[in-house]
Design a protein that fits this description.
By secondary structure, the chain is of the alpha/beta class. It has ten helices and seven strands. It is globular. The structure holds adenosine monophosphate, zinc ion and fe (iii) ion (2 copies). The site of zinc ion has 5 residues, from loops.
Amino acid sequence: MNQVDLHMHTNHSDGTFRPRELVRHAKEKGLTCISVTDHDTMSSFDECADEAKKIGVELIPGIEISAQFEPGTLHILGYFLDPGQSELQSTLASIQKARLERNPQIIQKLNQLGVSITLAEVEAESGGKQIGRPHFARVLLKKGVVKSMEEAFDKYLGKGQSAYIDKRRLSSRESIQRIRKAGGIAVIAHPKQMKLDEKSLEKEFERLASEGLGGIEAYNSCQSAAEAGLYKRIAKRFNLFVTGGSDFHGTNKPDVQLGSLGNGAALGYEVIQQMKSSLGRK
Ligand code: AMP
Ligand code: ZN
Ligand code: FE
Ligand code: FE
């Protein structure tokens, strides 16, 4: 049975579970080692760590940074980070600023498209925490503008769709460097979402490895067993750790269960030990 899940979100980014709830949910699911990887923030870390200690779950400090990329998306996970490292903190503060600038622009686009929606409604949906596109999607769903979260992204919010606004992002090199300087290991999340064919993917990983990448998330709830096989071959070729996670977002991604890494895949604890020993930790 799978006991390790290294990719999940709290309501500090765009998940629906509060930090302590998420850690308790992990325990109930039989997970023994998790990483909470909110988008561009580690603000849930202290609460998660406190709860994890209380109930006996190993928590690896984590994050998921959105980097510049075409044609798909490039999300870079960071593991074993020191959340208090000052450069990491200032980088995250500047990313927060970029998000704050983007939100009213998305509202403006939606309004121009004839959709009645206000920033206050989206802020209420996020509970005053970091706003992500799933919060916009939920408001659209509640208002009956769309019939599903998926439709909200397909019609309005997805990359290249009618209300899409890009935000300032770090390059992959900058993201990887910030993660490493904060004591961490950088791992490409859900490589499927880079939307590259096999040959281009290999080229891209050659570049990312030269930038200091440490791992690839071969197992993710959005990836098939065949895709996981390809990513494991890439890991071998470029000497990367193979990791995995569910990408659990609570009811913002209702089909994804905590602890499910896709196709019944399981991630052994060995990779955690290997990552720790590469960092000189016990
Ligand atoms: P943001 O960080 O605000 O740009 O939002 C990114 C999040 O939106 C991702 O982590 C997903 O949870 C969600 N998302 C992005 N694209 C889609 C899509 N096409 N369908 C469903 N959810 C999406
Ligand atoms: Zn998300
Ligand atoms: Fe992601
Ligand atoms: Fe994620």
